[in-house]
Specification:
The N and C termini lie far apart (about 75 Å). α12 packs antiparallel against α13 and α18 crosses α19. By secondary structure, the protein is of the alpha+beta class.
Length: about 700
Amino acid sequence: MLSLALTAMLEDVGAHSGAVYLRVPDEPVLEMAVMVGMPRAFAAPWERVGLGAPIPVAEAARERRPVWVGGEEDMARRYPRISVVLPYPFGLAALPVATNSTVYGAVFVTWPGGRPAEPQQDELRRLTAACDHLARQLERAAAEGRPLRSEPDLLATPPPEGLTGSLGSAEAARMVARLPYGLCSLDLNGRVSFVNAAAAELLGAEVEDLLGDQPWVTLPWLRDPMYEDRYRGALISQQVTSFVAMRPPGTWLSFRLYPSTTGLSVRISRARAVSELYRAGPQPGDAPSRLVTISQVLSLAGALTEAVGVQDVVALVAQELAPAVGSRAVVLLGSRAGRLHVLGHRGYPDAHVVERFDGTPLTEATPGTQALNSGVPAFFASRRELERLYPSRHATPDGFAAWAYLPLIASGRPVGTCVLAYAEPHPFPADERAVLTSLGGLIAQALERALLYDVKHQLAHGLQEALLPHSLPPLPGIDAAARYLPATRGMDIGGDFYDLVPSPPLAAAVIGDVQGHNVTAAGLMGQIRTAVRAYTTVGHSPGEVMSATNRLLIDLGSDLFASCLYLRLDPGHGRAVMARAGHPPPLLRRPDGRVKVLDRAGGPLLGIDAGAAYATTEFELPPGALLLLYTDGLIESPGTDIEDALAELCERLADCGDMPLDELADALVTQYTAGEERIDDVALLVLRAR
């Protein structure tokens, strides 16, 4: 069923390869059921993929929509992990195989390079119809109790009809034998199915030794992965590909590969004038390198480079590594103060089964502590093997039947243990143990970075929270709300600040912005905020507060500048006095809903001129009036005119100004909390006169 459906799709849209994935029952995993037109080894890193994986076939199933990738550049931009493993020009479409109620799997098909960047609606329409028909077939099969199984891959289609009739096979062989250059034919798996005498002589081997094997396996001097990569690139892109290689001791040969959907024809000839371009070639004794293994490592490595925090590492291991090796659950363990610490887990129906090991002394005999302490991996193919070495596990069953405990070694020391759990007994042959142990090294590097990031992140946010007010004090006659969003570049910490200072019978409000988004800026921000509060408490006027803070900043010898806006509030008399130091002007929303920009005179930034004077201005603050104090991160963004941004902010304040203050503050920063990246901190303080 699957092979026929997929082959029909390929023929209908002129694609040259594709695959059908089926959803694994009771798991958020897609498993390749059949592949057509390409060796399955090309897709080895994606034989089993989690539904959450950032690849087209998983995205199509997860979002129940077609995914179109127009070519090499589009693939590199949207799916860099695939581009790292398959850096060839080809187009791709992935579609869900689903009914209204059930997702059964997904399909992808590929074309040679040069596809349009925009989806081809006619091709998508035909592919969608075919996938819908396949979904209905799978639905009927499930209803009739027929199990859905993988099918043998189809690597080639029959040769064009009439070819043998137009040129007899014997005459074709004689013609090829008379040619002065070498010719050979490779099937889709890269095995030699035909080679003429001239090619065998150029390659330095007997015809019988070449037939049936891949040339990079038979010939030691072709074992460099680059040569196998050319074969892969030609098949996937369906474009003519060339390369040169040196046959020892010093004969350079030129290879030209002509791909089709049935295999490759290769023309071999002597290369001229290449010795100046290639100083050394692969040595006869070089060990073979398998690109499939390299592909798997590159795929996981590319995924782990995107991990930021520890939970990102846990999620990526669960989505990328576990499905590929058949594991059903993952646990990452670390250590803290001599005890085991559960960093994260996925796949366990009952979280308490894992979390009860949190806090276990590292001296206790458990497989997790043993792997962490010794740095030696442990593999248990069955529950009997595990309980024979660790009898205490009789009392703590987790519902699984096989386990791999991989020590995570980074910078020469253990940083944790990765536990892979399997639903069924699982033998671990030597090659699989070697691969899992090697992948543990990649996970360890990512985990070490993530642990360091989380510590810095917690430190930064702890410092930020300590320097900003935990809550706004109540002020007579004034309601207030505040919001703060750090820039997403750097350490998620910045120099923006705000404060309310009760100084009966009046009150003061202040907002400011110190240059930078780092610990230095945050520390200086804390000093300025403390100074403003102190000068306010001793009774300085707004202008004196600003001048004294300016002199203090210069005396501190900092190279950073700061903007500041200071308000002395007198709601009892409906008045306010303002002093500015290079800060964006506040907005005043009158009780009738009109908004005014209070762009009054002020002074320079703090920290520039010790003798600077800061003029003050007084304005009316009637009951029901609303003041918005903000930092420039609220109105400045690349490509946006600041005047237009300020006008838009005035309109939003006019429309939303009657909302409760907390709701209003949230509404004003909504677009920034949803944004993927903020290049500057955003702080605002909203005041309403009762």
